[in-house]
Amino acid sequence: MRVTQKVCDAADWFDPDMLDVIANDLREPAVFHRKQWEFAIIFLALRQQGFLAPDKVGLSMGSGRERLLYAIAPHVKRLVATDLYEPEATWTTVRTEDPDQFINSNSRRSLNSGIQRDIPFTFA
Known about the structure:
Helix content: 25-40%
Number of domains: 1
Mean pLDDT: 81
Order of helices and strands: HHEHEH
Structural class: alpha+beta
Oligomer: single chain
Radius of gyration: 16 Å
Shape: globular
Number of helices: 4
Low-confidence stretches: 117-124
């Protein structure tokens, strides 16, 4: 079983499974970058634990436009991603007038974004 709870290790970029995830799921060239390593390790951990399956659902909060979302989405039944996708958002990476276009323009796949606006949210 792969160890996925560890610090970023440059040797992982020579692991065939890691390179496969980077090329085919994250759909980007392999580069020595911490965030790419994190996304690939998370993807491999989800796969290893059986969470990347057609009957699984997921939730990502504060999603922005992270590449990992687009890698996970085709492998699960449903992935709900939330963020403040609006023109006045403080976080500039999610500032947009058109959330549906924003989500799809950042994907390397065709997505059914199913944008829902004005959903009540309660802080716990």
